[in-house]
Amino acid sequence: xxxxxxxxxxxxNLETKISRKKTDIKELKELTKPxxxxxxxxxxxxxxxxxxxxxxxxxxxNAENKLVQLERSLSEIDTEGFGLCRQCGExxxxxxxxxxxxxxxxxxxxxxxx
Length: 114
Ligand SMILES: [Zn+2]
Description:
This protein is an all-alpha fold. Helices cover 66% and strands 0% of the residues. The chain is built from four helices and no strands. The protein has helices at residues 4-31, 43-76, 94-99, 107-113. α1 (4-31) packs antiparallel against α2. The two termini are 28 Å apart. The structure holds zinc ion (ZN). Residues 85, 87-88, 90, 105-106, 108-109 line the site of zinc ion (ZN). Zinc ion is lined by residues 85, 87-88, 90, 105-106, 108-109.
């Protein structure tokens, strides 16, 4: 079990990350709006816009996945299994939990997955 002070830090960290992610998603949604027709902007800049749009769409999908993970972590923070590795059941390193509170695996198991 993690001590209360550490859990509180992780909770704050998760909340900060979640609100940042939500801002990111809002911005990315703006950037991935349909592109105006060809006569509105030049052909080259339209091609640029299409390229940027697919980059931004990928970033948006990543951000949305991350948000789901962060929210799941936050919802599980008070459960007994929080902070334990899903794979080996050992406690996840404190440093890792602080940096990546959405992680469900310890450092060793994360490495062995690659
Ligand atoms: Zn592990």
